[in-house]
Write a structure and sequence with these properties.
216 residues; mainly beta; Immunoglobulin-like; 2 domains; 4-stranded antiparallel sheet; 50% strand; elongated
Length: 216
């Protein structure tokens, strides 16, 4: 009797191993994973890039709130997160087998340490004895060279005042005594407008800029 029981037990174990191996062959699906599921973004001009480390291909991505973060797939396995406004939201990555993973994203912009105006990487100092003077109107900011003979002026303007949010009809003008260059802007957004100051980002589709003006 003991021999029969041992024989049946051995057959059961072998059958279990065979069934397990067969299941692995018939179910080769992979768990969907990314290299980071808790993300903090502090700059609108510096997207965060995540990598899909495991999954079944055919990836797509969606944002619960595109007013906070937009997301896109790049190079098949890269997830690019771009800040739009401050807040928190979830990003969902899904593969061809409808497996998904959630990414928690918080956007909290870090304000510059000092007043700045940057366009296409060039920094224009202002509100200093050896820099530009600044004038703030209802929907524009003008920087005027107070030192050199060129008397160059930079004017950033838009429609919509200084409330937080997207603005329309933005333009950037660079004026000298001999020339005027006008750059139509595709985006102007005020990210912060409170006691700490006005923080504005803008761009023309290929170039970007930012301006931070403290409130005295």
């Amino acid at each position: 009797m003991n021999k029969i029981l041992k024989f049946l037990l051995a057959i059961t174990l072998v059958a279990g191993v065979v069934w397990s191996c067969k299941k692995d062959v018939n179910d080769p699906l992979l768990r969907l994973q990314v290299d980071n599921t808790e993300v903090m973004i502090t700059s609108i001009n510096s997207p965060v890039v995540l990598t899909i480390t495991s999954g079944n291909g055919g990836y797509s991505v969606s944002s619960n709130d595109e007013g906070v973060v937009t997301a896109e797939i790049s190079d098949e396995t890269s997830v690019i997160l771009t800040a739009v406004g401050e807040g928190t939201t979830r990003i969902f990555v899904t593969d061809s087998e409808r497996r998904s993973v959630a990414i928690e994203v918080t956007v909290a912009f870090t304000l510059p340490d000092s007043e700045i105006f940057i366009w296409n990487g060039a920094v224009t100092p202002f509100d200093t004895p050896d820099g530009y003077g600044i004038s703030i109107l209802s929907s524009s900011i003008a920087l005027t060279d107070l030192v050199s003979e060129e008397k160059k002026q930079i004017v950033l303007s838009w429609n919509g005042g200084f409330t937080v949010g997207n603005k329309t009809n933005g333009s950037l003008m660079m004026l000298t005594a001999e020339d005027v260059e006008t750059v139509p802007l595709t985006s102007v957004k005020i990210l912060r407008a409170d006691a700490s100051g006005h923080y504005i980002v803008f761009g023309d589709g290929t170039r970007s800029g930012e301006c931070f003006v403290k409130i005295n």
